[in-house]
Amino acid sequence: MKMASQAQDDSDDGMDAFMDKFTKEKYKGGFNEDNWEEEFDKVPMFMKTAPEVIDPQKHPELACLQSIIHGDDGTPEEKAKAFKDEGNEYFKEKNYKKAIVTYTEGLKKKCSDADLNAVLHTNRAAAQFHLGNMRSALNDAVSAKKLKPDHVKALLRGAQCCMELRSYGKALQWCEEGLRIQPKDRKLQELRTAADKLKRTAERDVRKTKAKEKKEHSEREALLGAIQERGIKLFKPERPYKHSSDSGDCGPDVAMAGLDLGGLGSQEATGSTVFLDEQGFLHWPVLFLYPEHRQTDFISAFIESTCFIDHLTVMFGEELPPWDTDRKYHPQNLQLYFEDYKTEQLYQVDLQIPLLHILQQDRCFVKAGSPSFIVLVKGSAYCKEFLSGKKVHRLK
Question: 115 near 123, Cβ under 8 Å?
Fold first, then answer.
């Protein structure tokens, strides 16, 4: 009894001595009002967020917990399951990136449990899906299905990924596989309905696109044939001039209609392009240039059989353009010319001649898809100055 009493006395004396230290020395490791929140955040139990990388020097407690959870003592199955559970926690927190990393670590353990590996792939697919990584998510779903063909969650995820990737036919296949296992699964049923509807719509759109392309190709061929048949020459200014003894010196780089439509790009110049109507007439966007006033105008659909005077009478009828301050641009006062782009010589156009007759002239070339003509006032001072020094031909 005396020995027990002595031990108790020693214990009490030791505690008294320990407590006495606080009256003489200040505890250096305690929290204070300035840093208590910071210190609390270092304690695993009170951490708001865990660090991306756990440094044993800075976070010894976390490192200890991590070693307990993912230590080398457990079997590959136990380690993989621990990573799966940890990944699930990250997933619940919507921290999908960390979830992916954790599920990946679980798969690296290469455990022999096919079902567990299938779950790891499926869960990683879900995390990838939420991050918008549809291809990676689909790859995981495929891997999960190989490991466990009847894993409905993997089949559902595969169908969802295919829907997002607009592979509606494949989405239907995933849904059908899942419904063979669980015929009453509501999500799979809804996905199958949506995939079937979208697949039909996509196939219809493809048919429409092909029909449109076929029609456009047919119209393009007919247009090319019509231009070639008329002997109209298309000038492509982006290429240098060429001389060819075989072609009889056809002038600038000319694209005959049967070979190339590169010279018909008039969209930028006028917003319109040449077209062939149902009666077989070509309609050209014709550009008019008024160098005296630095103005331009165009007719979006000048029928090839129409004469110039018909359009000029409408354009310069009772109401003259505002830039014509001298009021002299009357149809009977106007002269039209086209320019040979090779020689820069001018050819005067008879206003009573149809457009087609002009376009068929040897030295007339359609530039950028739009025939262009210079408009001058006959006998005006500017007209004389403009024509001075230029070689002018009059068409017969």
Answer: no
Q: CA-CA distance, 395 to 90, in Å (whole number)?
A: 85
What count of other Cβ atoms lies within 10 Å of the Cβ of residue 174? 28
- Please report where in the chains the tokens 């090839």 appear, as a residue: 304
How many Å separate Cα 37 from the centre of its chain?
48
Hey, what domains does the chain have and what are their CATH numbers? 70-201 (1.25.40.10), 254-394 (3.10.20.90)
Q: State the DSSP string of 319-335.
A: S--TT-TT----GGGEE
Cα–Cα distance measured from residue 289 to residue 335, given in angstroms and rounded to the nearest whole number: 12
Cα–Cα dist 114/20, whole Å: 62
Residue type, 275: F
- Closest CA relative to residue 291, chosen from 394, 389, 385, 391: 385
Degrees, nearest 5: CA angle 87-92-94 = 95
Whole-angstrom CA distances from 228 to 25, 201, 367 are 107, 40, 16
Q: What is the pLDDT along the chain (396 residues), one digit of tens a residue?
A: 444 444 444 444 554 555 455 456 555 555 556 665 666 566 555 566 666 656 656 666 655 555 555 555 679 999 999 999 999 999 999 999 999 999 999 999 999 999 999 999 999 999 999 999 999 999 999 999 999 999 999 999 999 999 999 999 999 999 999 999 999 999 999 999 999 999 999 999 999 999 999 999 999 999 989 999 999 998 765 544 443 334 344 444 444 433 344 445 444 455 688 999 999 999 999 999 999 999 999 899 999 999 999 999 999 988 889 999 999 999 999 999 999 988 889 999 999 999 999 999 999 999 888 899 999 999 999 999 999 988 999 876
Question: In the chain, which residue ranges form alpha helices assigned H by DSSP?
Answer: 2-24, 36-40, 60-69, 76-92, 96-108, 114-130, 134-147, 152-164, 168-181, 186-230, 267-270, 308-315, 355-359, 381-387
Question: Across the strands, what pairs with 276?
Answer: 282
Contact call for residues 290 and 375 (beta carbons, < 8 A): yes
Which two tokens mark 309?
A: 């005077």
